[in-house]
Write a structure and sequence with these properties.
single chain, alpha/beta, TIM Barrel, seven-stranded parallel β-sheet, three-stranded antiparallel β-sheet, 14 strands, 44% helix
């Protein structure tokens, strides 16, 4: 199969020729340090271009993506005409919303939310940056058409629509979470403003690329390591209706599937995600509560949800190559049969993942991800590898 056929087949819950592989999004990419190390290991060179200044993600060139067996290529909107990324010598910068960021070793974090001390009236007067600014989408349709017609890659939307995250960026995470409890009217007003902003952006974005892409990213983080970030009741009241509105709008603008990113524990929210129209869930953080048992996830939700990732990025990627291989085998063994699985690094490949582990991760997916999945071969490999760790 071509990469595009492989992705299409998997996201429709059928078995392609092999498990498709994804890398290159804002939650499934590669940190600049990891990429530099990988290039050096491979004896290659490349200009380091950062496409996510918060997470310091580097654009990986096609030659390396092909070496890893990656089936996807991402389409990103441009910066707006009224804003330019300008990083100061100390690593600080200000985003288009007016929030200030500072470097924190390998990453950046918002430290100066533009509405941190704002009153409700101040928030009502705040002017959002124009989501329909034409510069954002200039040349994007031509780029998408060119890739679609001249390559066989599966094309994916790169700009992830988040709602709560933008509220956190504007107000600060702690303050906005307090708002949802003690100042509900203000919180709901800001949520609706951000939702409207996202929908206006999506309207233009999908007008440009909607007929070329296979899935479209949205999401917010709803889990912590051991459970929900918010109560299930609050999720149903405040979150689900707004994301359903966004998902319905996305699906009115494209035939692409909707993929939802949410870190941390997620088994508690899976039924809600299915109900609001999510087709694919990512990253299924492997060692967060409820996500550890891949076979259980497949049994409970695999007929209704496509899984993206679930590899133990947090727990094993920085350890031995054999541990990385064993983890990849475990995910393929339990999530791939029957289709409905996209292999990836889970979340972004972090700075501390050795290059030999990066190669081992993707090599394992290509070697053992061929359909029909040879479970006996995988079980034998797991038995051999896990014996080394005891």
């Amino acid at each position: 199969m071509t990469s595009r056929e492989r992705i299409k087949t998997a996201i429709n819950h059928r078995e392609p020729d092999r498990v498709p592989i994804d890398n290159g999004g804002v939650v499934s990419g590669m940190h600049e340090v990891a990429y530099r190390n990988l290039l050096a290991y491979l004896g290659m060179t490349d200009e380091i271009v950062i496409y996510d200044a918060v997470q310091r993600l580097a654009r990986v060139k096609d030659e390396v993506l092909d070496l890893l067996g990656v089936d996807t290529r991402y389409l990103y909107a441009n910066p707006p005409s009224f804003w330019k990324f300008e990083e100061k010598p100390d690593g600080s910068w200000v985003d288009e919303f007016g929030t200030g960021y500072e470097r924190s070793e390998f990453y950046c974090d918002y430290q100066h939310p533009v509405l941190a001390d704002a009153t409700f009236e101040d928030i009502k007067r705040y002017t959002f940056p124009d989501p329909r600014d034409s510069a954002r989408f200039e040349g994007l349709r031509e780029q998408a058409r060119n890739l679609y017609e001249k390559t066989d890659y599966a094309l994916i939307s790169g700009n992830l629509q988040a709602v709560y995250y933008i509220c956190w960026v504007l107000r600060g995470m702690e303050q906005f979470m307090v708002d949802t409890v003690s100042n509900r009217e203000c919180a709901e007003y800001l949520l609706d403003r951000v939702l409207d902003w996202n929908m206006a952006f999506v309207d233009e974005y999908l007008s440009a690329i909607g007929d070329f892409i296979e899935y479209h990213w949205i999401g917010d983080d709803w889990g912590v390591q051991n459970g929900p970030l918010v109560s299930p009741k609050m999720f149903k009241e405040l979150v689900a209706p707004r994301f359903k509105k966004l998902i319905d709008f996305v699906k009115s603008r494209t035939d692409a599937k909707v993929i939802y990113h949410t870190c941390g524990s997620t088994d508690w929210v899976m039924e809600d995600l299915i109900e609001i129209g999510v087709d694919i869930v990512q990253p299924l953080q492997a060692n967060a509560a409820g996500n550890e048992d891949a076979a259980r996830l497949k049994s409970m939700f695999g007929d209704r949800m496509v899984f993206h990732g679930n590899t133990n990025n947090q727990g094993v990627f920085h350890k031995s190559k054999n541990e990385v291989i064993a983890d990849a085998l475990y995910r393929i063994r339990h999530l791939a049969p029957g289709g409905g699985y996209i292999f990836s690094s889970g979340h972004n490949i972090q700075a501390n993942m050795p290059p030999e582990n990066i190669l081992a991760l993707f090599d394992t997916a290509r070697e053992y991800g061929t359909y029909p999945i040879d479970t006996e071969k995988i079980d034998a490999g797991l038995t051999r590898l896990t014996a080394m760790f005891r």
